[in-house]
Amino acid sequence: xxxxxxxxxxxxxxxxxxxxxxxxxxxxxxxxxxxxxxxxxxxxxxxxxxxxxxxxxxxxxxxxxxxxxxxxxxxxxxxxxxxxxxxxxxxxxxxxxxxxxxxxxxxxxxxxxxxxxxxxxxxxxxxxxxxxxxxxxxxxxxxxxxxxxxxxxxxxxxxxxxxxxxxxxxxxxxxxxxxxxxxxxxxxxxxxxxxxxxxxxxxxxxxxxxxxxxxxxxxxxxxxxxxxxxxxxxxxxxxxxxxxxxxxxxxxxxxxxxxxxxxxxxxxxxxxxxxxxxxxxxxx
Length: 284
Description:
By secondary structure, the chain is an alpha+beta fold. Helices cover 43% and strands 21% of the residues. The protein has 2 domains: 161 residues, Jelly Rolls; 103 residues, Homeodomain-like (Arc Repressor Mutant, subunit A, Orthogonal Bundle), CATH 1.10.10.60. The protein is built from 10 helices and 10 strands. The protein starts with 5 loop residues before the first strand and ends in a 12-residue tail after the last helix.
């Protein structure tokens, strides 16, 4: 299996696009520690999607306040830049994994939406179609940009299908939760109120939600509020105070701090950029 990264440039994508894929092994005491807010991208206004999947050993992934151990059969999706971190602890034995990065706009949007719906953490069997297809992409010797883009799109569809099948039993539950959050978005509610609306205890609701998504309910509520605020900034010319009120933030200052912490950019700076470009729309 290849252990060096393959970088493929796709000139046919408007503005050009690159994706890099590899199989890699890290062993302590070698340092391996990445902070998603301290990484640069080729285009400042175009986020990069990261996919990583463990074949052997394991490492840590942190999104927001939640840290999870990524052992064999598990992986994660993250956008760069965003508030996440992944690392190999000093007491770990090894981390052998597949990884891919790309700034292809279609893939960033498609898989970013997948992560927002199901969470950043993925459960994928070693023999599942997206993993076997990824290994075949690594083995390709001809770097034909059109053929590689086709493979990349097919891999994305295989990954989407595998994740949706894994979470099929929770789709109605998560859809109901999302609808409730948007229905009450302007209200200052929390996890207790959301659990009550779902006719569950807070403990039962929080456990089921985290089991289904890998996220805390409070982190998901915050992300949807920020997602809605970003849409207001793109589509409306409302003052920040009005957007804060419409999305459940205490005031414009509260919204501004949360927005910058999540997307590494202020609402005003974001609004001055080209419409429709969200630097890092991931849950946490």
